[in-house]
Amino acid sequence: QVQVVESGGGLVQTGGSLRLSCTASGLTFGDHAMGWFRQAPGKEREAVLCIRSSGATIYYAESVKGRVTTFRDNAENTVYVQMDGLKPEDTAVYYCAAAKVWYCSGSQELYDAWGQGTQVTVSS
Length: 124
Known about the structure:
By secondary structure, the chain is an all-beta fold. The protein contains no helices and 11 strands. It is globular, with a radius of gyration of 13 Å.
């Protein structure tokens, strides 16, 4: 059974930074793309970015480009998201998900194992 666990959320001021972590077990981690999604209050969950098994990053949320990067450590079954220059509009629950395949998609249907989410709150 695949398990995905996120950590690293919290409360920061505008312009602050956070690093989210996501560890997956029960799968051959290096064979799977890993996606990050977020859901803001009153909004639908949206794709933020995805990192392929090769380490290439695909951005789906234009608003995070230049502020958010991701990298993975396949030996540790972990993917990280470094978020800098945080804005109040980044406030959301952030979810990590393991894709069924090695490549990325912004469609949630491609992902079949989800974490419980971690709250990121950016104060103005």
